[in-house]
Structures are given as C-alpha cells and as structure tokens.
C-alpha cells in the first residue's frame, strides 16, 4: 500500500512539474514590460513560472483586443467605401459664367412685371404668360442649386 501511495504521489508531482511553463519578464528602453518564452539577448530578465494555465484574464483580453482591431478595420473600410461612393456620385460644379447667367435670369423673372423672350423655334419675341413664367422660375431655381 505504501508503494502505491508513493507511486501516486510521484506521478502527481511529475504531472504538475510537466504542466508548469517558464516565461521571462523584461522591460525595454521605453519602459514597456514584455513576457516572452525565451530570455532576450543582452537584457536582464526575471524568470516567471506558471502552473499550466493561462494567466488570469489574458486570453479574454487578447480576444477583446482582436475584436476591437477587427471592428476598427471594418469602420475604416466602411468610411473608405463611403468616400469612394461620394466621389463617384459627385456632380461637377457648373461653369461660374453659367451660374451668373442663371442668377440674372432669375432676377428678371422675379422682378420684371412683363418678361419677353425669343421663341427658340420661330425666332419671334413672345411675352411669357403666368404659367410659363412659373415653370421657368422653377427650372431656374433647380438649375441654380447645382451652383451652390
């Protein structure tokens, strides 16, 4: 019975020793503490032993860090995509001379009681009726929005 107990105790001690790991703790020139499996060359390092399990919270912290990195990369990619789409959908700004002409046309349509214009089909000078005047006001205001 004694030999069985001694054998069991020896097995337990060997299993515990086999599961222990050795790491080295050292500090770089910036004051950052590092833990590595091998001692760094040319630096003092303190030996740190673990007993077969990951230090408390380390795995969770690493997973959270990886998740934050993935989320940040996804946000950066979404921003890049939005910028590409905005560039593709961007309408070029009209020529300033065209915008000035539109503004003069709008001033004429708003401020003059009677507006005459040349009919593009016949070349005749016609007087705008109220309906045509309102239509031209709306078209001119819409066109001026591109100038802003």
Question: What can you tell me about this protein's structure?
Answer:
There is one protein chain. This protein is of the alpha+beta class and 148 residues long. Helix content is 55%, strand content 16%. It has four helices and five strands; from the N terminus they run H-E-E-E-H-H-E-E-H. The chain has a three-stranded antiparallel β-sheet. Strand 4 and strand 5 (125-127) form a beta hairpin. The longest helix has 32 residues, at 58-89. It is rod-shaped, with a radius of gyration of 40 Å. The protein starts with a helix and ends with a helix.
Number of helices: 4
Query: What form results from the Cα inertia axes?
Result: rod-shaped
Order of helices and strands: HEEEHHEEH
Mean pLDDT over the full residue set? 81
Which stretches are poorly predicted, pLDDT < 50 over at least 5 residues?
A: none
Tell me the structural class: alpha+beta
Helix content: 55-70%
Which key terms come to mind for this protein?
single chain, about 150 residues, alpha+beta, 3-stranded antiparallel β-sheet, two-stranded antiparallel sheet, 5 strands, about 55% helix
């Amino acid at each position: 019975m004694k030999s069985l107990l001694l054998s069991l105790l020896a097995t337990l001690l060997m299993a515990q020793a086999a599961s222990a790991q050795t790491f080295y703790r050292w500090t770089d020139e910036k004051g950052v503490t590092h833990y590595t499996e091998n001692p760094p060359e040319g630096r003092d390092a303190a030996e740190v032993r673990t007993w077969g399990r990951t230090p408390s919270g380390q795995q969770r912290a690493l997973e959270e860090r990886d998740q934050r990195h993935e989320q940040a990369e996804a946000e950066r990619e979404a921003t890049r995509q939005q910028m590409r789409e905005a560039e593709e959908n961007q309408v070029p700004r009209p020529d300033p001379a065209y915008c000035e002409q539109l503004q003069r046309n709008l001033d004429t349509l708003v401020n003059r009681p009677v507006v005459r214009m040349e009919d593009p089909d016949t070349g005749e000078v016609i007087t705008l009726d109220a309906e045509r005047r309102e239509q031209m006001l709306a078209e001119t205001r819409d066109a001026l929005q591109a100038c802003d």
